[in-house]
Amino acid sequence: MQPPIAHKIAVLVFIQNEQGEQLLLLRAKAPNQGAWSPIGGKLETATGESPFECAVRETAEETGHIITTGDLHLFAMIAEKSYEGSAHWLMFIFNCKRPLPQLPPAMSEGRFGFFSRAAIEALAIPESDRNALWPIYDKHRGHFVALRADCHPAAPLKITVEQITPCVVSGSGQ
Is the overall model pTM greater than 0.85, yes or no? Predict the structure, then answer.
């Protein structure tokens, strides 16, 4: 019998500059070492940190950008089974509504760049980001979607939408 795989809880935060370019980190460490991806990190579960608190903390730690939970829109939750064959991930994915005024300096996690959405397609990004994360961002960032992804390395990536909740703008009747 195979030993159980650890379950990790984390956030990703999509942040743009004033020109609408996405901030990405060229990761110097695993997971996704050598690939460009949004910022994020693991929840401090020992302190009872919420996904929103984690997103605020990680944004400040990685970019110096001070935001509040009100600056965030949670647009996706994805349960990734057997990511890279080493862990299960429960990811909370946020869009930061406050633009980042400048490129943050490099840090131990890697270096940053701003990229147009079209330019991202030519970057070295994780396959799961190319096939799942960016299409989710493109299609669902204005509302909320819950997904399940089977990421076992020996099988094709399979994504199942478990729920989509439309965005209701207060007072607009939409």
Answer: yes
Domain positions in the chain are 6-165
Q: In terms of CATH architecture, what is 6-165?
A: Alpha-Beta Complex (3.90)
How far apart are alpha carbons 98 and 68 in whole angstroms?
Answer: 10
pLDDT by residue for the chain (174 residues), tens only, comes to 666 777 789 999 999 999 999 999 999 998 789 999 999 999 999 999 999 999 999 999 999 999 999 999 999 999 887 766 677 889 999 999 999 999 999 999 999 999 999 999 999 999 878 988 999 999 999 999 999 888 777 888 788 889 999 765 554 433
